[in-house]
């Protein structure tokens, strides 16, 4: 865990990662007009590209708390030229739309990959013992059931579409009780891929027909034991291997990028952190940044 007292990552490697992210972000920001309604913009300590690059580097290294700001001011900007922590967080939230745009442009490259897989990941916001009295995000979060862990949790649910190479494409964040079928169409039509796979939670003849007729998206799922349709064992094993990539992606996002440990208490802060994690992971998948 990167927030322990002993930070074991090589400092030279961190400088190399920061340089690669900064060059990429600077090139992307030159393609869009970033208009921020703030006074005295000419007096800012750091440019927008620096703020976004630092934000992505923190997500890449697995930081989730204010320890990241202390690390930046103590190792990368030791001359006092970096922003104060609260102002840095406000700048990150203000640049959230730029981070989302960059991630969306990268995700379009996934349309040239072989196929895509859709699945959901629970994002708990508190410990199970506190889920009946927690107030964090109580307007948008609720209690849902995680079938893989066989337990209830309070929080949100991430519906994510990834390619066969692990590149995140479309995503939707809903309340924990939202069924996978409800968000499936929104996820797969953000950046449509012609071939998609899902698990048994997405079984729906109506959904499959609508995706194909309106969006020309083919969607394959396993069948239940009580359905009239029969699938061979070879087909089931083949589909299981194809869907395994999304489980690997979720494992990396949870263990290395700590996507289930986002500590933001505002919706904009949570969204910015989530987009930053997905963008940092996309840069690694495409080989633009070394992990």
Overview of the structural elements:
With 291 residues, the chain is of the alpha/beta class. The protein has a domain at 112-259: 2-Layer Sandwich (Nucleotidyltransferase, domain 5). The protein is 44% helix and 14% strand. It has nine helices and six strands; from the N terminus they run H-H-H-H-H-E-E-E-E-H-E-H-E-H-H. It has helices spanning 11-29, 48-61, 67-76, 85-94, 96-107, 180-190, 205-215, 233-255, 267-285; strands at 116-124, 142-146, 151-163, 168-175, 195-197, 218-220. Strands 1, 2, 3, 4, 5 and 6 form a six-stranded mixed sheet that branches. The longest helix has 23 residues, at 233-255. It starts with 10 loop residues before the first helix and ends in a 6-residue tail after the last helix. The model has no long low-confidence stretch (mean pLDDT 89).
Strand-residue fraction?
A: 5-15%
Shape: globular
Rg over alpha carbons: 20 Å
Largest sheet: 6 strands, mixed
Tell me the series of helices and strands, N- to C-terminal: HHHHHEEEEHEHEHH
| Second rung of CATH, namely the architecture of the domain at 112-259 | 2-Layer Sandwich
Q: Kindly provide the name of the CATH class of the domain at 112-259.
A: Alpha Beta
DSSP summary: helix tally: 9
- What oligomeric arrangement do these chains adopt? single chain
User: Helical residue percent?
Assistant: 40-55%
- Under CATH, the topology of the domain at 112-259 is which? Nucleotidyltransferase, domain 5
- Given as residue ranges, the uncertain stretches (5+ residues, pLDDT < 50) are none
Overall SS class: alpha/beta
Count every beta strand, where a strand is a DSSP E run of 2 or more residues. Answer: 6
Q: Report the end-to-end length measured between terminal Cα atoms.
A: 15 Å
Whole-number mean pLDDT: 89
């Amino acid at each position: 865990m990167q927030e322990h007292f002993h930070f074991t990552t090589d400092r030279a490697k961190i400088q190399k990662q920061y340089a690669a992210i900064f060059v990429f972000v600077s090139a992307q920001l030159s393609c869009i007009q970033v208009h921020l309604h703030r006074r005295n913009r000419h007096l800012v300590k750091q440019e927008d590209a620096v703020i976004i690059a630092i934000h992505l580097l923190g997500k890449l290294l697995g930081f989730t708390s204010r320890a990241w700001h202390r690390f930046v001011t103590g190792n990368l900007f030791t001359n006092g030229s970096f922003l104060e922590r609260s102002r840095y967080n406000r700048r990150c939230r203000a640049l959230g739309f730029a981070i989302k745009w960059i991630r969306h442009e990268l995700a379009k490259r996934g349309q040239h990959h072989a196929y895509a897989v859709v699945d959901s990941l629970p994002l708990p916001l508190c410990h199970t013992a506190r889920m009946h009295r927690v107030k964090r995000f109580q307007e948008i979060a609720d209690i849902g059931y995680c079938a893989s862990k066989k337990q209830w949790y309070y929080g949100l649910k991430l519906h994510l579409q990834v390619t066969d190479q692990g590149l995140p494409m479309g995503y939707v964040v809903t309340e924990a009780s939202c069924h996978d079928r409800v968000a499936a169409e929104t996820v797969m039509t953000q950046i449509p891929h012609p071939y998609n796979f899902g698990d048994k939670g997405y079984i729906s003849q109506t959904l499959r027909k609508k995706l194909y007729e309106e969006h020309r998206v083919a969607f394959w799922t396993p069948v239940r034991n009580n359905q009239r349709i029969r699938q061979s064992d070879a087909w089931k094993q083949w589909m299981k291997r194809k869907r395994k990539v999304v489980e690997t992606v979720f494992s990396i996002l949870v263990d290395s990028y700590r996507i289930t440990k986002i500590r933001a208490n505002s919706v904009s802060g949570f969204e910015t952190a989530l987009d930053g994690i997905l963008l940092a992971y996309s840069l690694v998948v495409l080989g633009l940044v070394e992990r």
